[in-house]
Amino acid sequence: MSNNILVWVEQFKGQAASASWEAIGLARTLAGSLGGQVIACVLGQGVGAVAQEAISYGADQVLICDDATVDDFRPEPYVALLAKAVKDQDPAAVVMVASSRGRDLAGGLAAEVGVGVIADCTSFRLDGDKFTATRPIYAGKLLSDVTATARPVIVTIRSRAFPKPEPDAARAGQVTNVTPVLAEDAIVGKVVEWVTEEGKVNLADAKIIVSGGRGVGGPEGFAPIRDLAVALNAAVGASRAAVDAGWIPYAHQVGQTGKTVSPDMYIACGISGAIQHQAGMRTAKLIVAINKDPEAPIYKLARYGVVGDLFQVVPALTEEFKKRLGK
Amino acid sequence: MHIVVCVKQVPDSAAVLKVDEAGKVSWGDAPLIVNPWDDYAVEEALLIKEKHGGQVTAITVGPEGAKDALKDPLAKGADKAILLSDASFARMDGAALATVLAAAIKKLGDVDMVLFGQSSIDAQTGMTASAVARKLGFNALTFVAKIRELDPAGKKIAVERLLEEGKQVVASKLPAAVSVVKGINAPRYASFMGIRKAAKAAIPVWSAGDVGVDAAALAPRVEWARTYAPPPREGACEMVTGDSPQQIAAALADKIMGEKIL
């Protein structure tokens, strides 16, 4: 077995997922400790620039498969290619982001190659030669330390849990072309189309999230929430109550049966803070709560709280930030 | 159509979890329930059966008490349920779990679709569907928000998947492993008659030997060394007040700007 760390760099339409650079950063640290190299796997079509980016963020080598069959992520050709890379490279670990695609790939790859997965890591360390990671369970109500008893091991990381390295355009690395393992006629799943107008919400990567709950009162109550989100360049989140009431699509839901998020700032508007909601956002760096009810449990997590009518406070806050941020 | 739906028993999402010094997790009086995301998988299985005919089999892995999680799909209309239980299943990792589920599904014979919730609310890895798919040689269709087309005779399926960039429409073949997200349907409640029937239903228990899995093949490659409560958030909440919404907003903006995150 080598001491190299393999990283799958996720991309969509030729654009790398920012959290993949966080994965490269972790791989760089591990490879440094083990005395190995970081080998990035870039799969897609027209992804030469992504390969160069991977080097600038810390990859020593890039295995690139630039082919129509791997243009859009599909589990069959991706698992086949990564399985071959694992066999060829014999790495100590394979690192990827615990995104939707990362979960598909990690699960499929683990089953295909017969290796373990340390999933959803928020911190990682080497105890001697042992890989140990911390991961939230029950959506962050508890933490668990997970240890790999065999190598290689697949490691999936939560977005925004590890620092993103500073890119260095002067870094040099070796790029190797690899060919697809599966031909198109051997792949069962076909991507028919993308519907991107609805459901385009990436809460996991958001630096700032403005969220609305039962207190917004209806679908139109999300208008001031959206306005504040625009002013702050933030994503819009929601509590389960607002989603279950049909006011906003499920893709926005934060909490135990929605997304677990870890932004720099989380502004909870009209959200009381049920335990299921807290589980999904308690690791935000700064939490601000705006609510009518001074007894709402959300204030127990918040750094700053306002007791008041969100329909008055939120628009005023939007105006204030527009002024200060020069919008 | 023979549809297998995989469910997991978990503590209720409202449970307050405690960990003792030995690392044992407890949830007080909170009930054990069917994983909330699996409710949508069960409902989707029943809707497909109602439209296309066939049978629904619910399976779970766990101790004897996990039979309770199978009574719920049985009460709602699943045709049968099987508990996979064995001393060697107690410390499995995700890959071993997929091995056991896949072996049980193979034993069930001609299965057209395996349904899962998108993940469990406890471990929340969301990898079981794709791992089981690989073990069975099925295509994995995960995070499905809608089944657009289903043609059991032609062995065809098309789905909408909810991903970070929007919805991806994928056409594929049966058999398939499908995981579903919240909102794909509105799960029904079990009827009183259904609950009574499920209470009396015999639920077979399959061991590792019954599904032809060697216990040695289930040795975990990752181990959960320690479980503990996260550190409490530091600092009390500072209430921001003012005579008008504008004053409150200005004071709050001062505080937020002071945190240097904008």
Keywords:
heterodimer, A: 327 residues, alpha/beta, Rossmann fold, 7-stranded parallel sheet, 5-stranded parallel sheet, 29% helix, B: 262 residues, two-stranded antiparallel sheet, 6 helices, 28% helix
Question: Would you write up a description of this structure?
Answer:
The complex is a heterodimer of chains A (327) and B (262). With 327 residues, chain A is α/β, with parallel strands linked by helices. Chain A has two domains: 5-186, Rossmann fold, CATH 3.40.50; 208-324, Rossmann fold (3-Layer(aba) Sandwich), CATH 3.40.50.1220. Chain A has helices at 18-34, 48-57, 75-89, 100-113, 222-232, 240-244, 275-281, 310-324, and strands spanning 5-9, 11-12, 15-16, 38-44, 61-66, 93-97, 116-121, 123-127, 130-137, 142-148, 153-157, 174-177, 190-195, 208-212, 235-238, 265-269, 286-291, 304-307. In chain A, the strands form four sheets. In chain A, strands 7-11-6-1-4-5-12 form a seven-stranded parallel sheet, sandwiched between helices. A five-stranded parallel sheet of chain A has the order 15-14-16-17-18. In chain A, helix 3 packs across helix 4 and helix 5 packs parallel to helix 8. The longest helix of chain A is centred in the N-terminal third of the chain and has 17 residues, at 18-34. Chain B is of the alpha/beta class and 262 residues long. Chain B has a single domain, classed as HUPs (Rossmann fold, 3-Layer(aba) Sandwich), CATH 3.40.50.620. The interface between A and B is large, with 106 and 86 residues.
Entry summary:
With 327 residues, chain A is an alpha/beta fold. Chain A is built from eight helices and 18 strands. Chain A is elongated.
